[in-house]
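Researcher: I'm preparing a figure for a lab meeting and need a structural model of a single chain. I don't have an experimental structure, so a prediction will have to do for now. The sequence is pasted below. Please return the structure as tokens so I can convert it later.
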Amino acid sequence: MILVISPTALLHAEYSEELFPQTLKKWKFVADKGMRDYSVLNIDAALWQPINVGELLPQKYNASVYGWYKTEFLVEASTVERPAIFIESIRGSDEVWLNDQLIGQKGKLHSPWELLTTQPQSLPRLYLIKKEWLKPDENTLIIKINTGIGHSWGAMFPGGTGITGKVVYGDKDDLTPLYYEKTNRIIALDMMFIILGLVDVFIILILLKKTIRPFPEFKWLLLGSCLMMLGAAGHDIFFVYELSIIPGGLSLFISLLFVPYVNGLYFWSQNKDVSVTIVSIISVVFLIITFTLLIPGVILSLKDILWQVWASFAALFFSYSLYSAIVRVRLNKIGSISQLIGVVIYIFSIRSQWIPFESYDHRNIQIGSLFFRYAILIAYFQQIFSMRLSYKVLSQKMLSISEMTRQEVARELHDNIGQYLASAKLQLGLVKKTQDPKHFQLLNNELDDALVGMRRTIAGLHYFPLENDGLRKTLLNYCLSLESKNNIQVNIDMNADNRFNHPVHSKQELNFHHNVFRVIQELAQNSIQHGHATELSIYFKCDKYYIMIVVQDNGCGFDHEKNLATSDTGGFGFISVKERIAILDGYLNIVSSVGQGTKADIRIPFY
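Model: Understood. Here is the structure written out token by token.
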């Protein structure tokens, strides 16, 4: 085959020595300008801007709905038996014109804010050309695409837009293998993304639901995965096989609109660091804006404005997600680093222009979303692994403590209650023999002492004052008891609200208060038994969302890192405290060093 070279063709010197197939270069681009039909393309040549084909369109073209690519090339028609144009990849639908002739189109170009269409995402094109359409001199190739959803900056489907691959002129027989190779690769990639997405949902529904206690963020975690799966309905595999149940454009746009909101609520439900009132107001406003964008018939100019408002909300949600992930890392939450990495990668993948390279046929956003979902799953698996290690140590200690408790109860029954009952039996025998009234009194005293001993034993096993007195009074009485039984001064400062002043009745409230009390009790006992402290301070404060507790002593302290590694003296106490705080979804930080005492900082969200 011979490429006819003319002075005009010298402008294309970089490929003038190529044999067919011939890559077309020297492209120009113009956006929108109100042009909807090919017939109105005779515009000022100065409006056409040079552009690189094979890359996503620059951000400056995102405020339009239509765009036109144009190039000129020279060929000799007789050199190709079955001339054709192969386009490696176009984001969305297209119309391709050669010398004023429509040679092909794939999908349907949508009008502003028209979502009920199914468009290809990055499929290749192969369009045959009739020989009589080719000119012996310069041939003009024009490609029309959708550049966005509406006339508002950034209003576009995820992943960017534009011609993202080579455009090649050549013989159909030479180009067909390239076309099918590209199509099959895309279908394989889409299938892989769909399978990984289904596995993500399956793990959330089956494994995490059964392995970890119910957690407040579960519904948002599941909804986020389902929204990303809904977005997968717009993948090319559904377009190729015409499997779409819901229009691909609508499924992609719903996923795009709601994912930032759901991710923000996922992190909020873990931290609860913003009031419910504020979250509710933001949610109502955001949902009104979002559904207005989805409703047909709304004034287009209003949608253009609302899109910018939505984009501000989306930026707020992503910023909050990133902030929350950073806070969880600072609080040493298990799995928080995985969450932070996932959030960062996902945010960068949303705008593909931020990434210095494109991979897997411009599917950075799908890769980023899957990376985020699996980073979240890894975080939960890290929590499961940590819980298994803690429970293993806890179970071993529990067996030992259980045996010690049985021995202690038996000793208490024998040495205390048993002695009183034995004495009561003796007095009863004397009453029968002598009928002396003083033996009746002694018998009554022995039985009273036995009842007191029984109540004391029961109180040690079940701390019932919580149910009758509430947490505040119970803690104050417990501190007084510590001072009377041990050589220690206890300072307690409770800046608590009224919710801790009343008796506890509901099971949820009782479990919450019981765990809080046991945490403080365990830390206090560790200070006395292992720290040999003479002064103990307990600061118990509340705000609208959290209880903040500080337990500090002046005891001998310990090497905290060594203690964690070896689970030596006092290890069980701290494991028990960690497990109770984990049940409450709280945070524990212990600071201690030999000879410097011990300080425990605790933060627990309200039930």
